[in-house]
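=== Per-residue structure ===
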Amino acid sequence: HELWAKLGVTTVFVSHNVDEAVFLGNKVCVLSSRPTQVIAEIKVPFGRDRNLDLLSSHEFFAIRAMVLDAFERGQLIK
């Protein structure tokens, strides 16, 4: 977040940790297995000033569930 604020450029952060992606991102893109395709783009509606209390909120769990659902659907694509 500091780098984004300092440089004002778009940053792509790759993670296999759903909680980390939802906590840090403005949008989570879920990719399918090979051949890789974007199967979901989920907007994360939290502001920049995030704290650890967010991790136990209903809103956080709702977004997390959307990401996990999209990931599960992506694993079914052959």
Notes: The first strand starts at residue 27 and ends at 31. The CA atoms of residues 1 and 7 lie 10 Å apart. The chain has a mean pLDDT of 88.
